[in-house]
Design a protein that fits this description.
The protein is mainly alpha-helical. It is built from two helices and no strands. Helices cover about 95% and strands about 0% of the residues.
């Protein structure tokens, strides 16, 4: 009888200690999930800040690109006119035409650079939005795990 009581006591204490261990594990898991969620939220805030900066400067870059394209078109037209006058003209006309051609090339390069910058920023906005969506999904998953 004493052995039976001793065995029941040991089994009961063993079960109790295991149950206490699970409670601590749950607290540790919750703390871990909360820490991960906090880090993700901080990352999310950083991405949102970066997105806002890019979106704020994008209209300025787009207008600069449009202006550069307009200036490029004007320079190219002037270069064509100079080239046409240089065909029947003297050496001075040829120099003016060459100078106008160089200016048109610079203006065109500037316009292409501005357009490329706008394209990169738009691509960056798309990438940031994808990252934001992924982080929001991870946060939602963590919150479901915590519940």
């Amino acid at each position: 009888m004493k052995n039976l009581i001793l065995i029941i006591l040991l089994v009961g204490l063993s079960a109790l200690s295991k149950a206490a261990g699970f409670a601590d594990t749950t607290k540790k898991d919750t703390a871990k999930i909360n820490g991960q969620a906090r880090k993700l939220k901080e990352k999310l805030e950083g991405l949102q800040t970066e997105l806002a900066k890019i979106q704020n400067r994008l209209p300025e870059e787009e207008s600069a690109a449009a202006e550069a394209a307009s200036e490029s078109g004007d320079a190219q037209e002037k270069s064509r006119k100079q080239a046409a006058s240089a065909v029947g003209g003297d050496a001075g006309d040829a120099r003016k035409a060459a100078k106008a051609a160089k200016k048109a090339a610079r203006e065109t390069s500037d316009a292409e650079d501005a357009a490329e910058k706008v394209k990169k920023d738009k691509d960056k906005i798309k990438d940031i939005n994808k990252d934001i969506d992924k982080i929001n999904e991870k946060i939602a998953r963590l919150q479901q795990e915590a519940e």
